[in-house]
């Protein structure tokens, strides 16, 4: 591979530019172990259908370009939507995409520092790596009626309340959990 790249005659500083661009778009994936995944229109509709009627609060942990949040926010102007993104360019992209939507707030930062208590629905399209820790955080912080929705990645050794198979190109599966209710049951026993 190195010999093939040498033959292209690319100036070495272009590799640094490429690395910097990837870092700005994807953030520190080496630390978070969560790559950039984007949710499609069909997934956004399925998540919107899971929201209770009336005004709600929803957060997208690692919102990427905020496509999912913006789609749902347009359909639910009575509700509030928050997206957290750590990668700098992806965050800016999300902020630009959410312009004009007064019910969407995009924040740059670490979702592990966010209190999940105020949210009716917590959406995560992460990776298998953080799911056990996310489950523990959700159990500790979410309200009894709160819903944790994980796109594609199950919480290990935990039965979901609902599993939805979507009819999209990648056969998306949404895993739905009510962590506070389950946590409360275990404490009562």
Set out the fold topology:
Blueprint: H1 2-7, H2 13-26, H3 29-32, H4 41-50, E1 57-61, H5 67-75, E2 80-85, H6 88-98, E3 104-108, E4 121-124, H7 131-141, E5 147-151, E6 162-165, E7 173-177, H8 179-188
Parallel strand pairs: 1-2, 1-4, 2-3, 4-5
Antiparallel strand pairs: 5-7, 6-7
Helix pairs in contact: 2-6, 4-5, 7-8
Explain the overall architecture.
The chain has 189 residues and is α/β, with parallel strands linked by helices. Helices cover 40% and strands 18% of the residues. The protein has eight helices and seven strands. The protein has helices at 2-7, 13-26, 29-32, 41-50, 67-75, 88-98, 131-141, 179-188, and strands spanning 57-61, 80-85, 104-108, 121-124, 147-151, 162-165, 173-177. It has a seven-stranded mixed sheet with strand order 3-2-1-4-5-7-6, with helices on one face.
Number of helices: 8
E-strand count: 7
Tertiary shape:
globular
Please tell me how large the radius of gyration is: 18 Å
Span between N and C termini? Answer: 59 Å
Q: Tell me, rounded to a whole number, the average pLDDT.
A: 84
Main sheet, how many strands, which sense, barrel? 7 strands, mixed
Helix content bin: 25-40%
Uncertain stretches of 5 or more adjacent residues: 20-24, 28-33, 182-189
What portion of residues belong to β-strands? 15-25%
Which sequence of strands runs across the widest sheet?
3-2-1-4-5-7-6
- Structural class comes to alpha/beta
The ordered string of helix (H) and strand (E) elements is HHHHEHEHEEHEEEH
């Amino acid at each position: 591979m190195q010999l093939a790249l040498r033959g292209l005659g690319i100036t070495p500083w272009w590799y640094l530019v490429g690395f910097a661009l990837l870092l700005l778009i994807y953030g520190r994936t080496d630390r978070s172990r969560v790559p950039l995944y984007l949710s499609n229109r069909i997934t956004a509709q399925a998540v919107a259908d899971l929201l209770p009627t009336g005004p709600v609060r929803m957060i997208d942990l690692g919102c990427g370009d905020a496509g999912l949040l913006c789609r749902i926010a347009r359909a639910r102007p009575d509700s509030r939507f928050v997206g957290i993104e750590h990668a700098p360019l992806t965050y800016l992209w999300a902020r630009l995409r959410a312009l004009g939507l007064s019910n969407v707030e995009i924040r740059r930062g670490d979702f592990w520092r966010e209190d999940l208590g105020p949210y009716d629905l917590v959406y995560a399209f992460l990776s298998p790596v953080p799911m056990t820790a996310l489950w523990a955080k959700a159990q500790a912080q979410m309200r009894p009626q709160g819903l944790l929705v994980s796109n594609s990645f199950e919480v290990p050794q935990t039965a979901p309340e609902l599993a939805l198979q979507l009819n999209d190109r990648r056969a998306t599966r949404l895993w739905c959990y009510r962590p506070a209710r389950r946590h409360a049951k275990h404490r009562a026993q």
